[in-house]
Amino acid sequence: MNPHVIPGRLRRRLIAIAMSASVAVVLFAAPAAQAQTKRVVKEGQSSALGRTVLTTNKGRTLYSLSAETKGRFYCTAECLSSWRPLIVPAGTKPTGPVKLGTVKRPNGKLQVTYKGRPLYSFYGDTRSGEANGEGLKDVGTWHAATVAQASPPPPPAPEAPPPYPY
């Protein structure tokens, strides 16, 4: 018998094993791809601002600092005792009701961004709906991350009067 020739029955078993392994790889790879996204932001009503704002999953208002643009960070060191960066693990794509991104902080961690600005929560907000950090001035001004309100639908057109008054 030629050692390089695999008998039919063994060949079919090897093919079945290879196909099973391929299916297993596909099935286990799909959940891994889904695990790379994480919902980290919600929308909520700020009673203090009377607007819809972005919040953490726990309902705390999220803010951005006006001076922090294009990957430049001013909130470091002591600033971080009052303002907590919204961080995600490396390889995670943050999701929410709006388009989000990430930027690498000076310490190498990934911070969530909205419209290119890093997002923070404020230690002075203790309940949902509060916006105690709104308008605080530092090297820039802190503002709640607000969501554009949808325009109300236009009022219905008035009905035309009948052509004959009688």
Topology:
Elements: H1 8-34, E1 37-39, E2 42-46, E3 51-55, E4 62-65, E5 83-85, E6 87-88, E7 93-95, E8 100-104, E9 110-114, E10 117-118, E11 120-122, E12 142-144
Parallel strand pairs: 1-7
Antiparallel strand pairs: 2-3, 4-11, 4-12, 5-11, 6-9, 8-9, 9-10
Task: Describe the protein.
This protein is α+β, with helices and mostly antiparallel strands. The protein has a domain at 40-144. Helix content is 16%, strand content 26%. The chain has one helix at residues 8-34; strands spanning 37-39, 42-46, 51-55, 62-65, 83-85, 87-88, 93-95, 100-104, 110-114, 117-118, 120-122, 142-144. The strands form four sheets. Strands 5-11-4-12 form a four-stranded antiparallel beta sheet, with no helix packed on it. Strands 6, 8, 9 and 10 form a four-stranded antiparallel beta sheet that branches. A hairpin with a 5-residue loop joins β8 and β9 (110-114). The longest helix is centred in the N-terminal third of the chain and has 27 residues, at 8-34. It starts with 7 loop residues before the first helix and ends in a 22-residue tail after the last strand.
- Uncertain segments: none
Q: Give the CA-CA distance, first to last residue.
A: 109 Å
- Total strand segments: 12
Mean pLDDT: 83
Tell me the series of helices and strands, N- to C-terminal: HEEEEEEEEEEEE
SS strand fraction:
25-35%
Structural class by sheet pairing and helices = alpha+beta
Largest beta-sheet characterization: 4 strands, antiparallel
- The radius of gyration is 27 Å
Name the helicity range: 10-25%
H/I helix tally: 1
Give, in spatial order, the strands making up the sheet with the most strands: 5-11-4-12
